[in-house]
Amino acid sequence: MTSTLITNIGELSTMDPARGTESVLKQAAVVLEGERIAWLGPATQAPAADAVHDAGGRAALPGWVDSHTHLVFAGDRSAEFAARLAGEEYSAGGIAVTTEATRNAGDYDLTRLLLARRAEAAAGGTTWVETKTGYGLDVEQETRSARIASSVVDDVTFLGAHLVPDGMDAEEYTDLVCGPMLAAVRPYVQWADVFCERGAFTEDQSRRVLAACRAAGLGLRVHGNQLGPGAGVRLAVEFGAASVDHVNYLSDGDVQALAGSWAGWDSAAGSGTPGTVATCLPACDLSTRQPLAPGRELLDAGVEIALATNCNPGTSYTSSMAFCVATAVLQMELSVPEAIRAATYGGALALRRHTGNDADGQRAVGSIAVGHRADIHLLNAPSAAYLAYRPGMPLTAAVWRAGKRVPGTRAGS
Ligand SMILES: N=CN[C@@H](CCC(=O)O)C(=O)O
Ligand SMILES: [Zn+2]
C-alpha cells in the first residue's frame, strides 16, 4: 500500500475532540497510507513514506463535510433570483420549475451535471458530500435521482416530500411518498428528509413521512423553521433525527429541545449519544434574505451545529464551504475554530460519520486522527484564520480524498 508524507505543515487543525486543547498542532506532519491516516505528529518525528509533499508551512485541516446539498438537478433559476433581489419573497413553489427541467433531462446529462458539481466542490476542499433527491416528485423520477446520486456522492437522502407536485392532492401525494416511492428509492438511500414548512408539508404530513421512513430503516433529517416558526425542529427532536436544517426561526422551546437532545453527549470528548445537529446554511440565508441562523445562540445552549452549503438552484447556488465558514465567522459570531469544526466534524456528526476506525465498518470523516479517512485540505495560507481574513479568495492549495489527490488541486511546496 502506498504511503504519502505531508510534512512542513505550519498549522494542522485536526478537529479531533479526543485531543482537546491540543487539537491544533504547529510544525506538523501527516502520513496517509491507502485510504487511512496512519500517523500524525511533529514534523521532526515523522516516519519515512513512499512519497513526500512539502506543505511549505501552509495550514491544513480536514476536508469539508457538506452535509446538505441538492445537486441532482437541471435547469436555471437565475430569473427567480433576480426577482428576489427586486423584492419578491422566496417560496417553495420554485421547486416545481427545477422539477420540470430535471424530469426533462436525460440520465447522461443529469449525471454529467452532478459529476461537475461534485468536482467543483472537491476542488474547494469538500471531501464528503450528502445530496438529496426532491426534484423528481414521482416514483420513477425520484428513483432515477436516487440511483444517479448514489453513483456519485457519499450519502444520499430521499426527499420525495419536497413539494406536492401540481395536480396532486397533498394527502394522496404523502401516501405515495410513504408507500411506493419509499419502497422504490430505498435501495439507493441512507437518509430521508421532509420539507416541513408552509407551502410544502404540514406537521401531520411530515410526521407521517418521518414515521414511514424510520420504519423502513432510514436515518432521518428535517428541513425545518426556514421561512418562519414551525414544527420542524420539534418533530426532528421527537423522531431522533440526526439533523434539522435551516433553523432560522427558533423559539426558546426549540432551542431547549435541541439542547435537550444532547444531554447524553460530551462535546469536549466527542463521546456519548449524539442528539439532533442544528445545521446552519448561511449561503442560503443570504441568498433568500432570511435572518442568519442563530449559530452562536445554539452553540452557547450546548447544541452541536453543522455548516453546509445547501447547494441548489433555488436558494443557494454555491458549493463553497469556505464561503459558509467565512460568513459564520464574520456574521454569525463564531470563532474560526468553531466554524471550521462545524464545517468538518459537525457535518460528520450530522451524517453520523464522526466515528469509526480500523476496527469498525466505517472510517470517521471530518477529523484528522489515526485510522480516520485520509481527507486533507491544504490551504494556500499560513493559518486557518485566513478563511475569514481573506474571504472569497481561492485558498485551496491541495486536497486528498480517501488518501488520493483530488485532480486539479496541487500540493504546495
Ligand atoms: N427548502 C427546501 N429546499 C431547498 C430549496 C429548493 C429549491 O428552491 O429549489 C432548500 O433547502 O433551501
Ligand atoms: Zn435543502
Automatic annotation (TrEMBL):
Signal peptide: none annotated. Its cofactor is Zn(2+); Fe(3+). N-formimidoyl-L-glutamate binds at Y135, N312, G314. Fe(3+) binds at H68, H70, H223, N310. Pathway: Amino-acid degradation; L-histidine degradation into L-glutamate; N-formimidoyl-L-glutamate from L-histidine: step 3/3. 4-imidazolone-5-propanoate binds at R77, Y135, H162, Q226, T315. Keywords: Cytoplasm, Histidine metabolism, Hydrolase, Iron, Metal-binding, Zinc. Its EC number is 3.5.2.7. Residues 199-381 form the Amidohydrolase-related domain. It catalyses: 4-imidazolone-5-propanoate + H2O = N-formimidoyl-L-glutamate. Its main location: cytoplasm. Catalyzes the hydrolytic cleavage of the carbon-nitrogen bond in imidazolone-5-propanoate to yield N-formimidoyl-L-glutamate. It is the third step in the universal histidine degradation pathway. Belongs to the metallo-dependent hydrolases superfamily. HutI family. HAMAP family: HutI (MF_00372). This is Imidazolonepropionase. It comes from Arthrobacter gandavensis. The gene is hutI.
